[in-house]
Known about the structure:
Blueprint (H helix, E strand, L loop, with lengths): L1 H7 L16 E5 L3 H4 L4 H9 L3 E6 L4 H5 L2 E4 L5 H14 L5 H7 L23 E2 L4 E2 L11 E3 L21 E3 L17 H8 L5 H8 L3 H13 L7 E5 L1 H4 L4 H14 L10 E3 L8 H4 L6 E2 L3 E2 L9 H8 L9 H13 L23 H9 L5 E5 L3 H4 L3 H8 L4 E6 L4 H4 L5 H5 L10 E6 L8 E4 L4 E5 L12 H16 L8 H4 L7 E2 L4 E2 L1 H9 L56 E2 L27 E4 L4 E4 L77 E2 L21 E6 L15 H6 L4 E4 L1 H7 L6 E5 L4 E8 L6 E3 L2 E3 L1 E5 L20 E2 L11 E7 L9
Parallel strand pairs: 1-2, 1-8, 2-3, 8-9, 12-13, 13-14, 23-29, 24-26
Antiparallel strand pairs: 4-5, 6-7, 10-11, 15-16, 16-19, 17-18, 20-21, 22-30, 23-31, 25-26, 25-31, 27-28
Helix pairs in contact: 1-11, 5-8, 5-9, 5-11, 8-9, 15-17
Amino acid sequence: MPGLGTSFGRGGATTFQQDLQNSDCIVIMGSNMAECHPVGYQWVMEARERGARVIHIDPRYTRTSATATDYVRIRAGSDIAFLGGIVNYILENGREFRDYVVNYTNAPVIVDEGFQDTEELDGFFSGWQAEKGNYDNSTWQYAGMAVHGSAGQREMGANQGEAAGHGGHGASLQHGEPPEEDPTLEHPRCVFQLLRRHYARYTPEFVEQVCGVPREQFRMVAKALCDNSGRERTSAFCYAVGWTQHTVGVQYIRAAAIVQLLLGNIGRPGGGILALRGHASIQGSTDIPTLYNILPGYIPMPHAHAHQGLDDFVEMNSAASGFWGNMGAYTVSLLKAWWGAHATAENDFCFDYLPRITGDHSIYQTVLDMLEGKVKGMLVVGENPAVGSANSGLHRKAMAKLDWLVVRDLVEVETAAFWYDSPEVRRGELRSEEIGTEVFFLPASAHTEKDGSFTNTQRLLQWHHKAVDPDGDCRSELWFYYHLGRIIRQKLEGSEEERDRPVLELQWHYPTSGQHEEPSADAVLREINGTGPDGAALSAYLELKDDGSTACGCWIYCGCYADEVNQPARRKPASEQTWVAPEWGWAWPANRRIIYNRASADPDGKPWSERKRYVWWDEEEGKWTGEDVPDFQPDKRPDYVPPDDARAQDAIKGNHPFIMQADGRGWLFVPSGLVDGPLPTHYEPHESPFTNRLYGQRGNPARQIFERPGNHTQPTDGQPGSDRFPFVMTTYRLTEHHTAGGMSRFVPYLSELQPEMFCEVSPELARERSLVNGGWATIATERAAIEARVLVTDRMQPLRVHGRVVHQVGLPYHWGSRGLARGDSANDLFPIVLDPNVHIQEVKAATCDIRPGRSPRGAVS
Length: 861
């Protein structure tokens, strides 16, 4: 999550759900938390019962809206305009928490004199390279020095526009030297003044014009946030994929980070930004990554053309100051965990065994390569791109170009059945007998049928124990990958080929049990935790070394098996511990529940207020103490000033709380680490009925566009044919179904609760298009036409944007052709167009048409 990673230093939620009860104001935006995260939502309700203001900002009125104190309707895709308006309100009214901002953020830092803002360049920052379609960020740097992303942003020159990581990191200063700054915040090139100028036009009137939010309602939200922030009060933001699934999704999160830093709400109880994950272990699947460009713990994947050896890699990706200065220890320990005794100092600890990347190997680029015949096979595990991905029809056609496809899932989902049961087969666009793809469906076991851990939305590892044995041929992922690796190693045994050594020399010995030789998940967790020279489990990542004496499968998880105890399996009742509940599961890093919590104390180490005390300096004990594990070196005094030769964490001052950042500060302005700009800027969605009210540049100039047959972009405002698609559409989840439906549409109870695909429209749109409640409608774009039952509801209302009325169409995206509850897939409608930082699709805002009646079925003549 680069939005959080570049702002604060780590790509994870800054707080935990239970802490929401301590909030004085909670803004839920980009999320329908009550329906999609109902268990965690209890803490929002607890806060409301204690008197907190709960504000829900969303295109649809939902159960979250109904239980909030305030609901604000907004146009899908306009959130940065709204959040930028809050920044403007804070700065114009002097509502920033000045002591926090001056000491804990980079507001005083002076930026290079060559930097030019979008306000000066009509929607572009300085450094735009039109011929390459990306930015050179050299003018975004601090004055007189270079700043680099510390986890993979320097290799292959991310300052040339290549997204090299997924943001679970801070950034580094070239020499660790202090930047030039003005603590009065008056210098015209200091970050604070850049912010003021950048957001000067984001007035309440601008917000009303762009978002469709009445200016007085907007002022209510901005005032509520400011009134509930400061020394005595704190406010929190909660978001989900309603923010991330945009071409500027990373910048949505950055905008919230700026608001929270200005108001002093990061690292403090009742504050923070809570990233609400889509399912139980999405956080875990980036920590122990299923992503092509990072290794466990957000270490970057080496690039084929950047690294000659381990020392080069470490030098290019570590920081002179901050905890990323220990990149060598994190990387070497990972290599030792994977290759054990084979990894020695003489062979660079087997660094050459790691795969190399050569460019964009993300899933959407891979699917487009499949269409070109460049990919021969694919393994799909616990995913259903035939329903869940943007332009899912194009995915189905791409899979028909493969030689082989392996699908592991609980049931035969649409991805496994595309070759005989799909809209393309029914229309005659694909013919089963002509598809050469050999499909292997391998049934998987559910979480109740295996041991293992989830890492949830608040970085919390929780252990689940097997309740029953899996049926028939169902097997766990751990079983599948372990035995696949074992069989491959057997087949390669005796090979003299150099290319086979990385596989043959892997540490691949895990205890197994039972009839099917199920590997021990507990043993894998212990390997991830890491061991020291004596073979005992390590207790903290501070114990990791770069000399090969420690092994650790993921440095941020080091400590999860401390004292030879499975820490995620702890279940101490709430009545037997503090409200922070440190003995329920284990949270990375170091079992901290609120990270950056040094910021809960003032620069002298004293709580900002007794009401919001959390972590503070104990002068008598000579250490940091409090309700949580301090996110700081425990004995570092508040007045500590590092000597000139200090490095890594020892180079961070005692009054700088953001220990993963090279300057120890939260970043309002991001000089490096993002490919589309140092500040969030309002751009229209890729497909929008409107022009950009601010600039001639309508959309994010760095967004990834793949214009090709089957993925055409629709005309937008002012272009010929734009009136064919006058409405805004957005997708969302339901409580009764889960993502692409594989875990819910096959369950009779859930299918009965939500049996059919439907669309939500306002009574006004229903009258305009002659739509009948309970009848059929066809929703159409350039990519596809789908049918859905019509739900006419006051939960959807038209908005007035740019002086004219706009209607929005709501589409749940769970349905497909398989299961008990069947229907068309909403994602068929959307184009493949992506956020350039993380390659995430834009499916929360696009344009469409809607007409009464069913869509054409059967073969196309």
